[in-house]
Model the fold of this input.
Amino acid sequence: MSTFGASAKTTYSIRPKERDPYQYQVGFGNRFASEAIPGTLPFAQNNPQKAKYDLYTESINGTPFVTPRKENQSCWVYRIRPSVAHKGFTSLPDNEDLESCFLPLNPKVHFSPTQLAWYPFDIPSQNNKTDFVSGLKTLAGNGDPTLREGLAAHIYAANESMGNRAFCNGDGDFLILPQQGRLDIQTEFGKLMVRPGELVVIQRGIKYKVGLPDGPSRGYILEIFGSHFELPDLGPLGTHGLANPRDFESPVASFDIDQLPWEIVYKVGGKLFSCRQEHTPFDVVAWWGNYVPYKYAMEKFIHVGSIQKDHIDPSIFCVLTAKSKTPGAPLADFLIFSGRWDVATGTFRPPYYHRNCASEMMGLIYGDYGGRSDEFAPGGFSFENGFCPHGVSYEEFKKATEAELGPMRVHEGTLAFMFETSMQVTITDYAMKRTGKLHEHEPKMWDDLKGQFVNHIDQINADLKAAGLPPLGTKA
Done:
């Protein structure tokens, strides 16, 4: 009798589901290979004299050629018509709500020393047809894409799919977080269905279009200039935890045969340009490489925390990070706060009062993120600049200092996130003047945080006397 058990017919992949009809390859930063027609990829080379089926070979580089191999990102694609087959570029009218220069010399951006918040942003009415690109609006940012360092926080609000229109961002990578409605995203590398609770990263220079299978949609975007997202180092955590590489999903090759008119909208230096062509940009029959879009379901995040006392720094909530040019100072961290256990004993469990050198921008995908005075609701946003003091309301403080502590679930049914950066952030004209949703945090939420110290003068003086020290008020 044979001892043979079984053998896999193919590599592991994520199979289609009812709400997500697409297949995915798994892994973070992998050098994938995918063929919609088996045998299309050239054997043992990238640029054959003649590609199979008379396809055109095209290279896409996401990093300079001489970037060290462990950091180098690129892809080879084999497509029906090359990207150079187009009819030229024309400028599009400025989107006054889209910003890319966050330097103080730009009169359309502003500094804020205080906390700011926005009620949920409006979705355009059905009378105002707006697709993903037309619905981009910038809230805040740092730097400038021409400097190859910086970031931008955007929202999108759309009610129409993109049809025969695609988008190519020449400025930076987009991390997109749908808050309402799924996004059906077709890229040059294949298709991704992204629901609220998932993130998707589409890198600089990659073409894609966004469909709205559930109707009107709204969400958040973190754009980074000059860097790419990576997994944070785990240090003493060891090999596993936080966002595990296996849980990231990239598309498989999928192509259309379409010689109809298309428009590709390019974003370059924050300006929009139109490029017309007589063929679909989604005609890649096969590809290989590691410069590929990916998505991640945030409920798969492995939370870690203190199992004895005190807090661990909020960096333990980091899903993805992007390096700046300053060693040890991230350009951007993407953090999430969702349902988990809190078991710390003898500890003030809410976020402690703090002044952070980083700038913090928060949004809410679903649920309730308590302890705030600003009616923080899904689809809204908040901002705190570096060293702006912040923390929970008096009511939350009182409850946390008096509660009987035991193991408890926190943020159940909630998914909040933070864009955190070591950079100084400016706020756009749109965010400050045109949303109709802006309000400052109500400082009165902290009015009842009185100096309770003075209620203990007698005990303090007794303790001082016991220590051989003079009472309070005695001049040295």
